[in-house]
Every structure is written in C-alpha cells, then in structure tokens.
C-alpha cells in the first residue's frame, strides 16, 4: 500500500474534499469539504476505505499506517493546542465510521478516547468540572468495552446479555440504591465509583484490564470500526440496500468537542429546509448541555431551533434563536453556505462547546415525497439546479407516496405490526374486517370502512374488492389476482401473508395467538406489507397535486419512452388520462365481466363457455356481442385521439366457470341442460397447468367465433366513433402467441371482418393496427418470423417471466422467500424484470423483430411496466413505450426520465437511431 | 418454356436417365434407364414435371408442347411399327402419372388410348380377337369417362355416385340378366353392346359424346393426369407424407402391350429379393392372359413366379418358371441386371405379350424391417454397397418393427379401426378390457391378457400398467404419464383418444354407438394409434435379433453421438445395456416409488412429504435412506464401468400424495395425526400450475435434507461398489435449474456430504460428476453462468418444450389437433424437437455453455432423445450423447449414424473441434 492512507482536516485546510466519498466515506469527505469552506469543524483525520478493505483481507493493519496516523495526530494536536495523552492539557478523540453511503447506526463509534487515570486529573483541572470528566470516562468505558473489548475477545453478545447490558444494570442498581431518578442525579463521586465497578466487571468477564493507555484505546477503536463493516447488522443492512461488500468503511478520528461542558454548551441537529413538506425554512432542534447521544436517547425533550421549528410539544421551550442569538445567526450562515455549496437540502449536526460553535456533520438530508417535489421545484426556480438534477433528486417511491393515502408515519413508528405479507398494493388503509365479498359490499353501503380478508381472491370477489378500503389475503404472490386487481385500482393490498389463519365460515381470523372477529379493526400498510390491529390515523393523498403535475411535466420533457396505462373500463381509462397516460397499452377485454353490473354479460359469457356445439356457441356469442361492443366503444371514446391496445380473450375458459352452487344451478336452468351435464362440461375445462393450457390465441384458433365477435366489436365501435367525429386508434392484440402462423390464421379472419365492417359503414378504411403480445419464450426466439405478420409487439413480461423461469406466479410462495434469503435471487422477478435472463429473451425478441420490421412498435404491458428498474431496462433495450396501471403512470414518467439521464453517455450513440416517439 | 419438355425412350436408347427423377418422375426416369440398359421396355415418352408446374399455374399447356409430343410419338410409332390412329395397324397408348417419389394410387391412369370406331376394326383384324378388343374398349370408356370427362365437366363424384359406379352397375345388370358369374363370361357381342350402353349413359350425364378421336383422347388423358396432382386424394397424401406441392408430376405416354392378348400373354409383379424377410431369392406372382389391373382386382388368385414363391394358397398353380421357362430365364436375367445396376432390391412389373417380354416398371422395392436389415447385411457381404449406404437404407421405423410385437399386417389391412388416438407406445397388443389397475393385476395373475383402459393414468396405476399388454387412455398427450411410462417399458400404448367415453364405475366403455363391456377384446396398434374391436393375430418381436445387432454395430462405427438410456431400476438398466446403451442418461430417483413391491419406500416417502417440521422430515428421510441407497447401488452395479446420470428429486410433492381414501387413512394413522390434519397438509401442497411450481431444485433448496439424503446415497453406494471391485461412474444431476446460484447452493451441500463419505469409507476420492438438467428457458439464456458451476448439461426437452411454447403437455389435447390440421404446427413438438424455436434455445444454451466451459459434456434426456429427426438435430448442434428409453436405443444408434452421413459436408468442418466421444 504505497498510497496515502490518512487525510487530515482542520484549521481551514483539508487534504480531502467532497469529491472523495469513495475513498474517505461520506462523513470524512464532507468534514474535509466543510473545513475547506472555512466552516469550523473539530480537526482530525480520515483513514481511507482502502485500508479497511486491506484489513478485511489481511486481518492486520499495514505497518506504514502508524507513522501516517501519528503525523496526522500531531497536526490535530497543533490546531487544538492540546496533546493526546498529555496530563495537563489532554486531547480527547472520537473514532467514527463513515462509508460511501450512509448506514445509520449500523457500525460502531467510540467517544472520549484518551481518558486515562492520568489525563482524567489533567482534564478535571482544566475544565474544573469533575462530574463532566467522570461522566465522559463512564461513557468511554461503556462504549469501549462493548465495541472493542468484547468483540476482540470473541464473546458474542446475545440479546442484551452482553457486557454493555451488564454495565447498565450496575448503573441502574446504583441509582436505585441511592434513590436517583435519572443519570443527571449521579454525583461526581458516584461516577468515579461506577467507573471502578465497571472496570472490575470487565476484568471478570473478559479477563483483561480496561486499557489505561491512550494509544491502545485509539488503535482498539480504529480496528473495531473497521471490523464493524463485517458485523452482522451492517452485512444484513447492505443486503437489503444493495450496498456492495467491497466498498468498505473509512474511519474518522476527530478531536472531541463537548456540548455538555457548561451552560453555554449545547448540541443539535437541523435541516436546511423542512424535510417533511419542503418549506424553505431552517428547521431543527437542540439540547443545552448535552452530548449527541442524549438527543437520540430521548431523555429530555429537545428544544426548537427557531420560531419556525416550534410545535405543540416544544412551544414552551426556549429556542436557540432566542437563547443564543449570535450563535444561531452563525449557524444560519453556515446553513446558507452549505446549501448554496451543495445545492441540496442538508442534514447537519452541530455542537456548541463553551459558546464556541462546531459543525460535526453535513450530508444530503432525507425527505418525504411531498417535500422532495417541492424542494426541486423551488430550487429550479432559484436556478440553483438543472432540470436533470431536479428529476434525479426525486425517487419513484417518493412519487408513490403522493398518490396514496398513508398511515400517519409518526403514529406507525410507535406500533409493532402483528404480521407481515407481500406489499401488493401501496398506501395505507384502515377498516373493519369482513370475510366475504358480499359483506364488503353491504357493509360499505351502510357507510362502514372495511378490510376484505380472503384466503385468496377470484373474479367473483371483485365487487367486494372494489368496495373495500383494503384487501388482505393469505395466499398468492405479487402478481396474484388480488394484487393485480388492487394495483389496477390503486387500492391498498397485502397478499401472501402465510401466518393468517382464516376461518371464513366462522368469520374469524387468527394470527398466532391473536383472534380477530368480523367487525374488528385492522390497518394495512400496503407499501411495506405491515398489518396492524386497531385503527391507525391516515394522511390522505393528493391525486390532483399541482406541484406533482408540474414536476412530471419536467420529466416528460426529458424522457424518450412513451407511457401508457393498463385499463379495462372507460372510468379507468379516464383516470389513466388524468395521470398522464398517452394511451392504453392493455385493455383486457375479458375484464368487463368482472364486478358490479356485469351479471348480464358474465352470464352470457358463461353460456358461451358452456356451449358444446358450434351452433350453441355462436348463439351465445351473438348475445354477448352488444355488451362487448359497448365496452370497447366506451374505452376508445374515453381515449379519443390516443391509441388503445385491445387484447383478445386471454385466460383459460375455466376461469369463468362459476364456483358457487347457486350460480351453477341458475346456469344449468338457463342453458336448459341438467346439473350433471353442466358439471361434466365444467370439469372437461379443467386443466393440469392452465397457465400453459388452452388460452389466448389457442382459443381463437379452436373457437374462431369468439375472436370474430371481439374483432367485429372493435371495427364497428371504431367506425361508429368516426361517424360521431371522434378519433379512435384501436390496436388489436393477439395474446399467448408462440408461432407466426397463429397470427397469420387470425389475420385472415380479421381481414374478412374488416371488409364487412367497411362495407356496413360505407367507409373506405377503418384505422387500426394488428399486433401481438410477446409473452411466450418461443415468440422471442422466432420474433423474426412473427414480426413479418404484425405492426407491433407488446411484451407480456408476467407470463414471459413465468415461462422463462418456470415459475408459476400463484405457486411461487412456497420457495421465493427462501430464494431471496439465500441470495439465489436478488428479488422477486415478478416485481422487477430479471434482466440477465428474461431480459435476454426480451432483447433477442427486439433484435430479431426489428431485423425484419424496423418500424415495429414495441412496448411492454406486464406489471413491470410501472417498476422503475424495469422501466430503465425498457428504455435501454429500445422499446417505444411502457404501459402500467394508472396509479403507476406518474412513477413510470419519472423513471423514464431517470433512464435518459442515467444513460446519458450511451444515449448519444443511440439517439440517431431512435427518434423521440412517445405514443 | 424454352427447355425440352418431352423425353423419349425406346429402341435401346433414351433421352433421360435414372438421375433425372426430379424432372421425369421416378417412373419415367427408370423407364429411360432400363431402355439404356438394353432391357425391353414398351417405347414412349415422358412429359416433364416442369410442364405440370407450369400447367398448374397457367391452367393451359404451353403451345410448343404439341410439336414436341408429336415428334416423340413418331419415334414411338417407328419403334413399334404401328401408327397412332391408323386403321390397319393402330398403336394404342397408356398415359400414366409419375412423381418424384411414389404416390401409389393417388393419381390417375388411362389405358388403351387410341381406340376409336375405326381403329377397333383394324385391331380386330390384326389381333383376330374381337373379345379382347371390345374388352379393351370397355376399359378405355370406363377409365376415360371417370378420369377425364367427369372431372373436366366439373361434376364431383360423391361416394360411389359417380359415373364409374353407374357404368359398373350397367355391367353388373347385364351379367345378372344373362346369368353370368364373372366378367370373363361376357361374350364379344355383350361387350360391344355394353360399350354402346356406356356411351349413351355418358352422353346423358355429362352431355357430351365419348370422343372418337384418338388425339382428343390423348390430350384429355395428359391434362387429366396433370390435374390429378391437385386432386383431393393426392393433396392429402402429400400433407401426410410431407411431399412439397411444388414437385408436380410427370406424364408417361407409352405404347400399350397386352398381357391379355393370347394364351402366351401374361402380366406380373416381382421383387428381386423377398421383401418380407430379405431372402436373396426372386419372388413374385403373375397372371396368365391378364392386364395389370386384374392382378390388383384379385378376381383370380395369381400364380407363383417360381418354386421359391410358392405358398399354401398358390402351390397348386403352375409357376412362370414351369410354364414359360425361357421367358422366366430372361426375366431372371433382367432381375439380376437391374439389381446389380441399381444396387438395391427392385420392385418390377412386367408384361408378356404373345411370348414377348416387356418390363413396365422398376423401382426400389418397399420392405419390412427384418427384410431391410437382412438385405443390407447381405449386400454388404456381396460388396455391392458401402457401410454408409447400408445404414441409410434402413429407416428408424423399420428398426422399431423389429423391437415390438405387431398386429399381423395382412389381417390389419382388412379391418377398420373403431377409433384413433395418439400413438404413444409402439407395437401391437390384444387383450380383454379392464378399467382399473387392480383388475389388470388380478386378471393377469389368472393368465389373461388385458388392455387397461383409463381416463388418464397416475402413479397409482403403474402396477396395472406393467401387468397389462396395452394401455389406452382418453386423455393426455404424447408425453403424458401413460405415454412416458409405457414407452419406457416398450409397451403398446394409445393415449388422448378423445372419442372414448369411459364409465369406470359401471365398467363400460363407449365409442360412438359401440359399447364395450369389461372382458371384451380390444386390439391396439400403438405404432399408428389405431384401436380395433376383436382379437387380431400378432407377430412377435425378436429382442435378441442377431442380424439387428450386427447392423447396429455398423451404425456404431459411423456415429459420433453417444447413446444412453433412461432407466430407473436395475432391470431396466440391464435391458438398456443389452440394447447397446453406453450409459444411463437419466435415472429418475423418484421412480423407485412407483409400482409393485414399492409400498414400503413409497409409504416412507409420503411420510416425508407430509412432514411439517424439519425434525419430522429428517426422521422420515432417515427411514427412507436405506431404500434409496439400495436402488442407486443396484443401477450403478448393473451399469458397471458406464456412467449413470442420477437426477435428484424432480416432481412436485403433491404427485406422491395418495388419492385413495384407504391409503390416506392409513397414512394419517401411521403419522399419528388426524385425518383432518393430513387432508389439510395435502391440500397445502396443491398448486395452480404444478409444472411450474415447487419442484426439482426448488425442493432441494427449501428442504435440503431431502437432497442431502439422495446425494449421500450416491456417494455411499459408489464407495461400497468400489470396495467391491466395481467401477461405478455416478453423475449427479440437479433438475429444474433456472439460475446458477441454485447450483452453487446445492454444490456446497454436495461438497460437505462428499467429505463425510470419503472419511467414512477411508477413501481419498470418490469418482462423480456434478451437472444440471437444462429444461427451463432461463437456464439456456444464462448457460454461461451455469456452465461455470457444473461439468455437464443434460437437456430436458420435454419441459423445455413446455415452457418454451407455454404448452402444458397434459392439456395440449384441447388444441393440438386443430393446430396440426390448420398447418400452424407441422407436428407435435413433444414428439420431435421444434428446431426453429426450442432448437434455438438449445443452441443458445450450448454456445453460451461451451463459451466458458469448453469441456462441458452435453446430452439430452428428454423423450426426444429417441426420435430420429431430433437425434439428427442433437448431432448437428454438437451434443455428446442422446439418452432415450431402452427400447429406442437401437433407433437412436441408427439415427445417429444417419445424422453423420446426412451431414457429411458440414462434418468435415466440425470434426476438428469435436472428438469422437461416445459416452
């Protein structure tokens, strides 16, 4: 290791800068940057992440580190005018971790390093505050024994049985014995005694003396911070956040400053703008005479930073602005300087030692969705950031927050969920539990809010699902029926919660030992998958959020991908338009049979399905025709001027067979056949693997009359709308295609019906496009043949993922969790496109398709179309548009803009080939 | 059309040759070849297939054809010394079709063209035989009116209602009126009157006179033959045989010679060797004083050609060898010359006119399997053909004939099947119908032969399936459970016969209006899928056929692909070895639980499946261990010295859940849980799409103890065999892999178990290979990652076809027939690899796999491994071996040799890269 390992900062000069985050970690880089900006920072130095990586490999620190540290320490001593280990004028140090990106609380910190029997006396003399010094020593012993000694000794601390807990117990016992209420009551001599007791206990447990050498303390601290990179907590945090193991952490060694030294000492945290709503106001809180950990510990209520930060809880306390106006002014000037410098809202920490202000940290502040949008719009107006920066600073999940009601986060944080499921439909919902679709409908009519709880849902539950505030199921995955329907409506939904034990007959739900009767309250957090008993308060969404619209228009200026919505009814189509959809990418013609008011068409559909002869079926199809046409016309009208992709009948017929006995009876009666005969017909539709069975175009080939009816409805609806002065753009999409000849066969039929429709309406032509869903692996592989027969491809990535992985989305629950836990899969491939496998199929399909038909319009209509990483992938592989549920259209608009910015470099190469084509 | 359109032959000189089959058709090319060989052939000419194709397009003959025909006709007249249309010395002509490959009976023929009122008189004078001439005229009128006039008039003849039938009725009535028994009784004047009656009826129906102009007759005949290329029969024959529409037919116009002219006239057909058994003996039959059609009509029993051709039916008749020894000798000399020239057995037709021998046709003779093998071995010994030719002359289906009993073809041809299904297991079987597995077993014990008839089969039927002679199911496809199991055993099986209506409770089977009770006889032709009532006679197979062995050894010398077998038990493995398998490509470890004597392990397996906790499961797994080890050891021992690929547990667990109530009760009792609990556990295993559910490696990941048990059994069995002096070569195969990390996870477990086994047996190493099944599309796409973790790939093309097409093999019955009929798919992709789609996936997998691991061993173990076209594909894409059911091993050996020869050219390029690697 010939490279520099240690970077000093302090005295308005630093060797590092904010650009060196990879080497110095976020904290270290920003400390250097602040120093260079002339902002007062306690001096110190950063040991690089490279040293950490090296230490992880070799389990020993490089020999040349010691002299570098020594030299840096000397610079620190010089700036502070104190010396480490010096008896009269001792310098104390903090040792803190600092990775490239923030991992709050995941790694270790040791404060007050440098206190030994000797320096304690010097510090007492110097500060004149014996209590302060012994309290600092007490803190050092507690932290150090826990962080350094226990770990070095290889003693794993299990659930509060570790040394720290034992020392806390000693302290509690002393307080109890002496009748003290809080730590503050402890006298200096109490603390001194406590330190002795601590050291004795440590000796007993670890078999080693607490080190009384300041350098031993320092090196122990440095090694412990490095080692904490591979601690259990840090590793699992990295798994969740996707942070690579190879980054390593830096170590920041800094002169201690004390917010608890005197009455004119304090410590606080602040945000340069309000992180909860984006207001351009300084916002924060502080504690007089305290150290940072005291703020976190919540022993005292922190005071507001200024007038603006006052709330009902702290209005009676004196603000920093009031108590130390000069220092507040100084702090506010740093706030302005930092925000101007970093051009983003900062989260800062400060300490005031004896009337002297020090900045301990600055970093980009976390914010919620509304705040994020507001801040970037403000900063754009202030001209401090570019459009691209504005777009990049808002995350898709922040947009999502704006679109759904949510549980009040202040309340939610205080309560434990009783169960967790898969977060299938985002947002929050509270309601009374019901166990059937009918109950959900009737209770809602009575003005009640309900949560519908089902083992799993099927099309017969749709009315109840629409009525309910939220949906909770015990089975199914992220793309199960419940999840798909709920997401389509933007409804809160949790699925696959396997700890639920539902007894729908007795109307009771068991979760572990807890029993919930019909009518009791549940609250769902569909964004996280958390389930709570009781009714938690909600924050409502702002569907027509003006700032959001403004922000999304900026995204639209940047993105290349078109964004359409999946919608099945005129009202869904209208909502999609409001959310900015540029067309319908998927209208599932069969979805008109689900839900309220659909009894008539559903009944006729069932009649069609139960027909045995072609004649029977033709009759049923004719009866069905007016309903289908009306529906198609409605959606085309709602999307006037924009394209609507209409998918021909897709699911296996048995999905429409009624399950309830009463409905079966009714159907048999109306069909004029025996119950036995009906049952037999229904059974003959049963399939072993319906997902790969007789469905989609296969139905169209074997029962051409069904396809013909749908196609006729499209042409006639279109012709009528044109006569009415509208501009319909239907795109007929054939599903489940595996082979080009399937499309040729259907096309012949389409051509005939087209001719008839033109004749009937006296029109020379009726506008339409003919295309196919690409959802079967073979379709990707033979896309060069398929593309010769169609004008567009629309990737159905749900099915493509199913077939490509051989994963039935309904059955994946049995092993998916194990797969993710064991790191076999990074995530659920039904959530985000599996780019290295399924993505390859998609690329092959696009390449082969465009190789013979360069004008081919290519989109995606699977659930992935609204997932940001997948949207980025769709952009990269050259699709024309994505289509997703209306509620995800804003997210897709943002993600598509992100994709352009992230791919800035490659874009230049591609841009000549791909025109901006949004529809 | 500037090219020559007409090719003459006759007078020992011909313009064409045997090489010109594409242009002249098979018949025309061989007539030319025989002429050039100096063999007497009635002179004539061939109009090319190109004229046919042109005529099909333009619906009119090219103008320049007439002079070419005229010139050729003049040459014919000159050779024959007779003139077409001449009154004194008339030449009569035949007009026959002749396509590139033989399409027997599918197209039209007109004989005796040139008979008119005038020429009739001349011919009577010349032949002195009035009866002969009017009989010839009668034949001309019947053929011509049917073939030429009726079709030209656009009258479609429906089911015997056509003109031919009407003329036959007139003839029958005359015979009846006059009290004649056969045609031979008709007097010359009867025939003359008949001709008049015929012509009158033709006039009445068609509204046109029968043409009395010889050229009109000739051109009518030529056009009719061309037109018959697009006749209904010919088109559907081409569909079945895969003959392209673009080939067209040639027309052969030839001078008539008459086998029915005098007592020293005759006609016959013969084979240069016996086509039924391959004996190198001249074999044939003939009729004195007859025309070719009389032999076919079967009015008289034909006489044997020679002593060798005598049989019980014709022993009393005088052979040609006896009656015309000189002519027989001449014929025999032509036989020798033709066979020597064509170097293959010929099927010849000859006519003797007034003591003068003419050859009418020679072509490669059809033969059955045993004959085909015998002939090529003999010809190899005679050194008349090369090894490659020998191999190419035997088709896979001929080999198949040698391996299974078959219905006596002489009997089968006379009987109509009552139903057709999918030919799932080849060969024939006759037996009494039973409807349950138990009945099949108990009836068989009583010495009865049974056919097991089931809606569909499941693992509980396996005992009955083994006991039955044949299996018949109403549902399922070519790779359904019944089909897979039956083929594995070489058992006759027909599946997916949807016209069956099975009432297993009442033990009755309905097919249309026919009712079959338990115990009635059925005969199955599993090669064709035909089902017959009654008991038909069988010809038994010759499993240990010496000639077959000899022939297959020649194939082995040529082929590059290794051939392994799929076998699950020691006895199957032994049979596979006898059939020449070079290893086991697939041992399904779970198959040990099916069938007789497996109650104990099956019970323990079920216990394992029904376990809820890991502890319960571990216990069950331990109990199961000895059975699994014994089984694995048995197969490894049977294959001593050869590799055995052992697949870890593959199917979804619910497949093993018992369906019978009594077994469920027993299981609940033995597990010590309530029936309710057991039912609940069984239900929790239910999956919506089990084929894409929790199976294969997914089970191995979630229940590692099951995998560990199997792997331990492999290592311990191997170690014990080595200690016993054997050479086991186990290959551990992980199924249903979609992602490399699945394999890495399992490998860690394998490594641990390996270390333990080595320690336990005190061995430094235990030989084994680690590999994966490639059966999920994603595995092909990520093969470069997967290949880094394994030593071999084995393609599971059944599942790859399922996932690649999105076709559930159990549910394909609903639409597959429509797909094939509508020409959307050329054939069932589960039968022969879909090369353009699934084949692409396979190629991608091989390329990506070998790109990172050039030594990767690659094979196939899906059902396709024994299908000739698929074997060829496997060879082409560079696999190392195929694996198939033991009964198909000989077929695969042949097909692999065919592949080498067919790919002779590409082979040269590839051969450097691919070493001959058979195992």
From TrEMBL, chains A, B:
Write down the required cofactor(s): Mg(2+)
The reply to whether Cytoplasm figures as a keyword in the UniProt entry is no
PEP-utilising enzyme C-terminal domain residues: 548-899
Domain called PEP-utilising enzyme mobile: residue spans: 448-529
InterPro entries xref list: ATP_grasp_subdomain_1, PEP-util_enz_mobile_dom, PEP_util_AS, PEP_util_C, Phosphohistidine_dom_sf, PPDK_AMP/ATP-bd, Pyruvate_phosphate_dikinase, Pyrv/PenolPyrv_kinase-like_dom
Q: One Pfam family name from the record?
A: PEP-utilizers_C
Active-site residues annotated for this sequence: 481 (tele-phosphohistidine intermediate), 861 (proton donor)
The reaction(s) this protein catalyses = pyruvate + phosphate + ATP = phosphoenolpyruvate + AMP + diphosphate + H(+)
| Any one Gene Ontology molecular-function term assigned to this protein's record | kinase activity
Q: Where along this sequence does the record place binding of substrate?
A: 588, 647, 775, 796-799
User: Would you say which domain of life the source belongs to?
Assistant: Bacteria
Q: Which residues bind Mg(2+)?
A: 775, 799
Q: Which UniProt keywords apply?
A: ATP-binding, Kinase, Magnesium, Metal-binding, Nucleotide-binding, Pyruvate, Transferase
Residues in Pyruvate phosphate dikinase AMP/ATP-binding domain copies: 22-61, 63-382
EC nos: 2.7.9.1
UniProt similarity note: Belongs to the PEP-utilizing enzyme family.
Under what name is this protein listed?
Pyruvate, phosphate dikinase
User: What organism is listed for this UniProt entry?
Assistant: candidate division WOR-3 bacterium RBG_13_43_14
């Amino acid at each position: 290791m010939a490279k520099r390992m240690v970077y000093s900062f302090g005295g308005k000069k630093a060797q590092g800068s904010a650009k060196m985050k990879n080497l110095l970690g976020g904290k270290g880089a920003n400390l250097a940057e602040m120093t260079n900006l002339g902002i007062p920072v306690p001096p110190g130095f950063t040991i690089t992440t490279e040293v950490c990586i090296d230490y992880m490999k070799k389990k020993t620190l490089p020999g040349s580190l010691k002299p570098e540290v020594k030299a840096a320490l000397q610079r620190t001593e010089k700036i502070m005018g104190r010396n480490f280990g010096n008896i009269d004028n001792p310098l104390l140090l903090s040792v803190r971790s600092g990775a490239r990106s923030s991992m709050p609380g995941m790694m270790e910190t040791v404060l007050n390093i440098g206190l030994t029997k000797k320096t304690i006396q010097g510090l007492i003399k110097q500060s004149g505050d014996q209590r302060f010094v012994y309290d600092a020593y007490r803190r050092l012993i507690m932290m150090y024994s826990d962080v350094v000694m226990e770990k070095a000794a290889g003693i794993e601390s299990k659930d509060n049985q570790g040394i720290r807990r034992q020392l806390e117990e000693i302290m509690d016992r002393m307080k109890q014995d002496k009748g003290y209420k809080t730590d503050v009551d402890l006298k200096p001599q109490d603390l001194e005694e406590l330190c002795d007791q601590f050291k004795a206990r440590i000796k007993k447990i670890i078999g080693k003396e607490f080190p009384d050498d300041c350098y031993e303390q320092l090196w122990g601290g440095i090694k412990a911070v490095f080692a904490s990179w591979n601690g259990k907590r840090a590793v699992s945090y990295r798994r969740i956040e996707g942070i690579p193991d190879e980054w390593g952490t830096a170590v920041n060694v800094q002169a201690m400053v004390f917010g608890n030294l005197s009455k004119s000492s304090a410590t606080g945290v602040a945000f340069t703008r309000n992180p909860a709503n984006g207001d351009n106001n300084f916002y924060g809180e502080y504690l007089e005479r305290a150290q940072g950990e005291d703020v976190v510990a919540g022993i005292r209520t922190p005071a507001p930073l200024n007038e603006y930060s006052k709330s009902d809880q702290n209005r009676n306390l004196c603000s920093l602005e009031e108590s130390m106006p000069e220092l507040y002014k100084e702090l506010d000037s740093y706030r302005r300087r930092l925000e101007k410098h970093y051009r983003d809202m900062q989260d800062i920490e400060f300490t005031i030692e004896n009337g002297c202000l020090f900045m301990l940290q600055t970093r980009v502040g976390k914010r919620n969705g509304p705040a994020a949008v507001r801040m970037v719009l403000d900063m754009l107006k202030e001209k401090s950031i570019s459009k691209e920066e504005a777009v990049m600073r808002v995350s898709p999940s922040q947009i999502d927050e704006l679109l759904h009601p949510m549980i009040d986060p202040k309340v939610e944080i205080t309560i434990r969920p009783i169960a967790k499921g898969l977060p299938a439909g985002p947002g929050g919902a509270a309601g009374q539990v019901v166990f059937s679709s009918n109950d959900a409908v009737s209770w809602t009519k009575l003005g009640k809010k309900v949560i519908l709880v089902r083992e799993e849902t099927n099309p017969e539950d749709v009315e109840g699902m629409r009525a309910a505030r939220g949906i909770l199921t015990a089975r199914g995955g992220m793309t199960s029926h419940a999840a798909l329907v709920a997401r389509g409506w933007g409804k809160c939904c949790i699925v696959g919660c396997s700890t639920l034990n539902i007894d729908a007959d007795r109307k009771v739900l068991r979760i572990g030992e807890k029993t919930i009767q019909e009518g009791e309250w549940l609250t769902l957090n569909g964004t996280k998958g958390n389930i709570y008993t009781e009714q938690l308060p909600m924050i409502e969404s702002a569907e027509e959020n003006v700032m959001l619209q403004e922000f999304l228009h900026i995204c639209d200026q940047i993105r290349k991908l078109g964004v359409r919505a999946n919608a099945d009814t005129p009202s869904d189509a209208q909502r999609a338009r409001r959310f900015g959809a540029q067309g319908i990418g998927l209208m599932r013609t069969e979805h008109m049979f689900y839900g309220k008011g659909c009894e008539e068409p559903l009944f006729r559909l069932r009649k069609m399905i139960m027909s045995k002869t072609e004649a029977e079926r033709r009759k049923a199809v004719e009866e069905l025709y007016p309903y289908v046409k009306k529906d198609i016309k409605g959606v085309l009208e709602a999307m006037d001027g924009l394209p609507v992709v209409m998918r021909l009948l897709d699911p296996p017929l048995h999905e429409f067979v009624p399950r309830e006995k009463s409905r079966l009876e009714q159907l048999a009666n109306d069909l004029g056949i025996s119950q036995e005969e009906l049952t037999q017909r229904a059974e003959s539709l049963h399939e072993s693997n319906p997902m790969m069975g007789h469905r989609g175009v296969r139905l169209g080939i074997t029962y051409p009359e069904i396809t013909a009816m749908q196609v006729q409805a499209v042409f006639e609806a279109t012709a009528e709308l044109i006569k009415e002065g509208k501009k319909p753009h239907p795109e007929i999409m054939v599903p489940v295609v595996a082979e080009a000849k399937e499309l040729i066969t259907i096309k012949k039929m389409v051509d005939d019906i087209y001719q008839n429709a033109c004749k009937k309406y006296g029109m020379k032509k009726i506008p339409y496009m003919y295309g196919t869903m690409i959802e079967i692996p073979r379709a990707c592989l033979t896309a060069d043949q398929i593309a010769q027969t169609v004008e567009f491809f629309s990737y159905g990535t749900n099915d493509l993922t199913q077939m490509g992985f051989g994963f039935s989305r309904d059955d994946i629950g049995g092993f998916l969790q194990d797969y993710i836990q064991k790191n076999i899969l990074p995530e659920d491939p039904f959530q985000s496109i599996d780019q290295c496998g399924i993505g390859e199929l998609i690329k092959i399909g696009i390449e082969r398709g465009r190789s013979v038909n360069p004008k081919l319009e290519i989109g995606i209509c699977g659930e992935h179309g609204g997932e940001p990483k997948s949207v980025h992938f769709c952009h990269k592989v050259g699709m024309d548009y994505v289509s997703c549920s209306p509620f995800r259209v804003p997210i897709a608009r943002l993600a598509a803009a992100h994709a352009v910015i992230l791919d800035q470099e490659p874009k230049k190469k591609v841009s000549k080939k791909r025109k901006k084509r949004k529809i």
